[in-house]
Design brief:
about 675 residues, alpha/beta, elongated
């Protein structure tokens, strides 16, 4: 019984070794069996008595040499030997079968298995200073397209770890993105990015860059990516080389949760969180060059004396729609907003969705502080609407208002609303179709009322022509054909394509954010700002010390630089002398504060009621040191425990030191940018 069990286990291990990626395991079987038989034949030949019927050994060769010669080559038979001919034949027969049939077949099978294991992503290699990508979502081709040309990443191997089918991914990249496929030397692994053993097999502790993008069609993609991030940090706990980590997420709530984390204490991994939808929206809304004037939300029209306001209409309250609106809310702060007047020119953001009445409740619950300060209108049909105004206890000073239309872009009453927007000469209208269905987005965009496609010169479009952004997450062949080939649709702009070659890490934006952080650091520390270091290392040292939340705020501040620069140029054309320069600084400081207000509200901070705010500011400025200390403790408690900020307030209600802080910031921006 024990002998039978032994041979069953032996057979099981043999069959299992046939699928092993370790070549030496499979080779051990024919080598071991060959050596065993060779030894057996040699012992038999050694003990076999000499026979007078055979010839004497030719040349006096020992029997072990004859045995080996016969075992490995049948050409040595018949051999003048002291061994019987039948025994020689048996040695040749067994040796030929073992070498030709068993050994060669094993080597062939090893090669076949190696190819299969490489194809299926099961083979593992040793890398260092490499780029490690965890996931194979639709961001992957864009990453390869964009990052392959970066000098700091050229020549480095790329390791892609995916839980999807590695062979299908390789075929997809090879057929759909041949340029990306041939751009970088990469290898695809199959495995779970949260498994410590799998990460060790990818040499995560030796990687120079780690990019966590996750997989498509995973409802818990954010959760899995964060779990992968935690696993990477654990594996790199003893790493000595600093690695850049880019953590991709999809949902706004995930980003808000991560930004609530304290400053990173992990010294070997610098993490930057990238909301994929926010990054897409930012690239669509922030013009990459000065020639993109007609692709900005304000079309470069909103100067201090302008009577127009921006109106952004977002069709579809999907994650992309939420991110598009949030990005616009961070960007749309203009110098012609005058709080306290009867009808201040606020930026209006309108959502169109069949479930808008439910979504508005979710928005109010999620962004309680924002909607305490906002003008909100809900329209359910042509005649049914309701609105709310800011809570009087907090004040009315935001320059963004919100509107929700319950319906589809094809509904008659919604189309009538869209016509009224286009006919209003005071509005600078932009419509963004952000549904998850790319075909539906394009269909609805091409079906807009004719007012949205005025006939003018495509090479010199009118500044007031509505812009139509169309989200195309896969590719934009049809949308691009409509834009370039059909003159009527010249103002239709596809965005969010997976094969886009834009920089997913937005290197210029990151550089501006690092420079902004340097400016804030100098001003907060009371040191004079003379010049910004030209060496990136000086900026990186301060950048590495920031928390995830502080990095995000610096990045969002960098997105407003284009608007501030244009505002500066527009005001400078009409202002002269020192007094006018003071007016310019005051205007820019107000814009920067309004942007900061919106940034904090979207980060889920809440304002203090005006009465409490005034008392706290008064206590912080009191002559008595004890009073100031108690007020500072209370202010910290409001900020850290209650998530409320006293400086979410009208600009004129800020303490004098805070107003001076904003003036110093924008003056530094003017010199640096």
């Amino acid at each position: 019984m024990q002998t039978k069990l032994f041979f069953q286990r032996l057979l099981w291990r043999f069959d299992r070794s046939l699928l092993s990626s370790r070549a030496w395991t499979l080779l051990l079987w024919p080598l071991g069996l060959g050596l065993l038989l060779l030894l057996l034949f040699w012992l038999i030949g050694l003990l076999w008595p000499a026979s007078p019927l055979v010839f004497a050994t030719a040349g006096g060769q020992p029997r072990w040499v004859e045995t080996v010669a016969l075992f490995f080559s049948g050409a040595n038979f018949p051999l003048r030997s002291s061994l019987p001919l039948l025994f020689q034949f048996l040695i040749v027969l067994v040796g030929s079968v073992l070498v030709a049939a068993f050994f060669i077949a094993s080597v062939t099978l090893i090669l076949i298995n190696r190819r299969a294991h490489y194809r299926d992503g099961l083979s593992r290699y040793h890398f260092s200073d490499h780029v490690l990508i965890l996931g194979s979502g639709r961001t992957l081709p864009q990453l390869i397209n964009s990052l392959a040309t970066k000098p700091e990443l050229q020549g480095r191997p790329w390791v892609i770890l995916t839980s999807a089918d590695a062979a299908s991914l390789r075929d997809h990249l090879r057929s759909s993105y041949p340029q990306a496929y041939n751009a970088v030397p990469f290898v695809i692994y199959h495995g779970d990015s949260t498994d410590p053993a799998t990460l060790r097999s990818c040499q995560v502790e030796l990687a120079s860059t780690v990019i966590i993008i996750g997989e498509d069609n995973d409802p818990e993609n954010d959760q899995h990516n964060v779990a992968s991030w935690n696993a990477v940090r654990a594996q790199r706990s003893n790493a000595t080389q600093l690695a850049q980590c880019y953590l991709y997420i999809d949902r706004l709530i995930t980003g808000q949760t991560l930004r609530a984390l304290p400053q990173e204490s992990h010294t070997s991994l610098e993490t930057t969180v990238i909301n994929r939808f926010e990054a897409i929206a930012r690239r669509a809304l922030v013009s990459p060059d000065p020639d993109g004037a007609h692709h900005t939300l304000d079309r470069f029209l909103l100067m201090p004396d302008s009577t127009r306001f921006v109106h952004l209409v977002v069709v579809g309250m999907s994650p992309m729609g939420h991110a598009f609106a949030a990005t616009a809310a961070r960007l749309c702060h203009y110098p012609n907003f005058a709080p306290g007047t009867s009808r201040p020119l606020r930026t209006r953001i309108t959502f169109i969705d069949p479930l808008a009445d439910q979504q508005i409740d979710l928005f109010k619950a999620r962004y309680n502080g924002l909607f305490q300060l906002s003008h909100i209108t809900l329209r359910t049909d042509a005649n049914g609407w309701q609105s709310s105004r800011p809570d009087p206890a907090y004040g009315d000073f935001l320059d963004i208002e919100w509107e929700f239309l319950k319906g589809n872009a094809s509904s008659d009453w919604v189309r009538q609303q869209l016509r009224s927007y286009a006919l209003d000469e005071q509005q600078v209208v932009t419509v963004a179709f952000c549904s998850d269905d790319a075909s539906e987005n394009l269909s609805d965009a091409l079906s807009l009322p004719p007012l949205y496609y005025p006939i003018n010169d495509p090479d010199d479009p009118s500044a007031i022509t509505p812009l139509i952004f169309v989200y195309q997450p896969a590719n934009a062949v049809l949308a691009q054909a409509a834009q370039t080939e059909v003159p009527r649709y010249h103002n239709l702009i596809p965005f969010g394509m997976a094969d886009s070659t834009t920089d997913p890490f937005e290197a210029p934006l990151f550089l501006d954010a690092k420079r902004i952080n340097y400016i804030h650091h100098k001003i907060d520390s009371g040191k004079p700002l003379t010049t910004i270091p030209s060496e990136p290392q000086s900026l990186n040292n301060l950048w590495c010390q920031l928390s995830i939340a502080e990095k995000h705020r610096a990045l969002h501040a960098a997105t407003l630089l284009d608007s501030l620069t244009r505002c500066t140029q527009g005001l400078s054309d009409n202002l002269e002398a020192t007094a006018d320069n003071s007016t310019l600084t005051d205007t820019l400081a107000r814009i920067e504060h309004r942007r900061w207000n919106m940034e904090m509200l979207l980060d889920d901070f809440s304002p203090l009621p005006a009465a409490q705010r005034a008392l706290l500011n008064q206590a912080l400025a009191d002559n008595d040191a004890q009073t100031r200390q108690e007020a500072a403790i209370l202010n910290n408690r409001h900020t850290n425990l209650r998530h409320t900020l006293k400086d979410i307030a009208p600009f004129d209600d800020l303490p004098a030191d805070r107003i001076q802080h904003y003036r110093s910031i924008v003056e530094s921006y003017r010199r640096a940018f």
